[in-house]
Design goal:
single chain; alpha/beta; Aspartate Aminotransferase, domain 1; 3-stranded antiparallel sheet
């Protein structure tokens, strides 16, 4: 497939703009010394080019997308319609409060709903993504300890099954990361945790259910141990979709939480972004929140600057249209629909797991929550076929690969999250495909290394692509 620059021909194009009917002026600032080298194509060429690109793209609207730990579920089109309403779409962040009452009400309601679902007392919508929310929450913890004159608390405890962003966020916030191992069942090793907490413990970062898809039965004892040592508990909300409306992080003993609106509350993930990572906290941390607070005065909603002892973490109040979509989703589901959605995610994951577990060994053979992790370590030892090989083979059957080699504590891992939006027929078809791919790999292991066979590129050099990406077109050396 040719790049759009390679299809360009000088002088080609379609102009729909009318002739200029006002005096033409040149800007005062210095312009480009050379004109932009934009591709020149006819309208039908442009249409066909982007249609071809769309056909090459694999997304939720094109087939089963069981990417574990990422919640790639279908996003209702109604949410896009809500965000496209002119009163939301065209608002300016500097618009006077009197002219933005509806927008302020959206923000206030979104904060209130998220606080109720998470068991927190206050929420800020300001963080722009999940990891940004982690960083913000950790700054709250740091500010809290400093305000109390407790500067010796420099360590954040992070389980070894945590999301990779957890230790990275803790390090960025200036903490020392202490790794806490898992026990044989995939839960936090309680004895290791209790041995690690102490006067230097600032807090614990943990998600529950955890990254192997299990709800830790010792969660109350875990958070209590950290509190008794003087630390705070941070809840990574990446897996909130498995428990929302059923159990709340605030009731488990967590003091700070971030929520991934693009995962749990159906705002688009990845290229359909932007993301949003609101942070909630208990009342004693409220004064440290960044962003704006919305208060009602004289019958009007007004924006008030927060005390913001940590300072703002981005400009203005939020990725507003993402909040519009998330609030729409929460209002559609309502108090009854939110726990039903969580139950659906858990049911689908367990159903698919039981359909394939006789061929795919589970890393932890327990009732899972929203996702499950398989280990193909034995398969690789017996046949040489790796988790990567099977993941690539699924592409030939129209299924996006599951998450590969994560979490790191499971060797030859494949992580599957079917989400609640898939019907049983799709899960049955996916299970049949997983089984067929495994049986083919055992019968013809040498062929498994060749997959996928139906894509434009079979096995790109992923290391080189990550370390030496080609992100611009070289006009002087177009074939390099």
């Amino acid at each position: 497939m040719k790049l759009i620059f390679e299809q360009s021909a000088a002088g080609r194009g379609t102009a729909y703009l009318p002739e200029i009917d006002v005096p033409q002026t040149a800007p005062d600032f210095k312009g480009r010394e050379t004109p932009l080298r934009l591709p020149e194509l006819s309208e039908i060429q442009v249409d066909r080019h982007y249609t071809a690109l769309a056909k090459e793209t694999r997304g939720v609207n094109g087939g089963f997308y069981p990417l574990g730990s990422c919640t790639m579920k279908y996003n209702p089109a109604l949410l896009e319609d809500a965000a496209a309403q002119p009163g939301f779409r065209d608002v300016h962040p500097l618009q006077p409060d009197a002219a933005a009452q509806g927008c302020l009400e959206v923000m206030r309601k979104a904060e209130a709903y998220l606080a109720e679902i998470t068991g927190m007392d206050a929420v800020t919508l300001q963080p722009a993504a999940g990891a940004h929310g982690e960083f913000t929450g950790l700054l709250l913890i740091k500010a809290y300890h400093r305000a109390r004159g407790d500067g010796e608390r420099t360590k954040i405890l992070v389980p070894d099954s945590a999301h990779g962003t957890n230790p990275a966020s803790a390090a960025m916030a200036g903490f020392e990361v202490v790794n806490i191992p898992s026990d044989g069942k995939g839960y936090v090793d309680l004895q290791a945790l209790k041995a690690a907490v102490g006067p230097d413990t600032a807090g614990l970062m943990l998600t529950n259910p955890n990254t192997v898809g299990l709800f830790d039965p010792n969660i109350a004892e875990i958070t209590k141990a950290v509190h008794e040592a003087g630390g705070l508990n941070y809840y990574d909300g990446a897996n909130l979709n498995a428990i929302m409306g059923i159990v709340r992080p605030g009731d488990m003993g967590f003091d700070v939480v971030h929520v991934n609106l693009h995962k749990t509350f159906a705002t688009p993930h990845g290229g359909g972004g932007p993301g949003s990572g609101p942070v909630g906290c208990k009342d004693f941390l409220r004064g440290f929140l960044p962003g704006i607070r919305i208060a009602e005065e004289d019958g009007m909603l007004r924006r008030k600057e927060a005390e913001a002892r940590i300072g703002d973490v981005r400009s203005f109040g939020s990725n507003f249209l993402v909040a519009v979509k998330a609030l729409t989703y929460m209002m559609i589901l309502g108090r009854e629909g939110i726990p039903e959605t969580a139950a659906g995610a858990v049911l689908n994951a367990n159903y698919l797991m039981h359909r394939v577990k006789d061929l795919y060994p589970m890393a932890f053979d327990e009732t899972c929550m929203h996702e499950f992790v398989m280990t193909l370590e034995a398969l690789k030892e017996e046949t040489g076929v790796s988790a990567l090989d099977l993941a690539k083979a699924l592409i030939d059957h129209g299924i996006h690969p599951p998450t590969m080699y994560f979490p790191l504590i499971v060797h030859e891992a494949l992580m599957v999250e079917p989400t609640e939006t898939e019907p049983r027929e799709t899960l049955d078809q996916a299970a049949d495909t997983f089984r067929a791919v495994m049986e083919a790999a055992r019968q013809h292991p040498e062929e498994a290394h060749l997959a996928p066979l139906t894509t434009r590129v079979s096995r790109p050099d992923e290391v080189k692509a990550a370390r030496k990406p080609v992100i611009r077109y070289d006009f002087d050396h177009p074939m390099d």
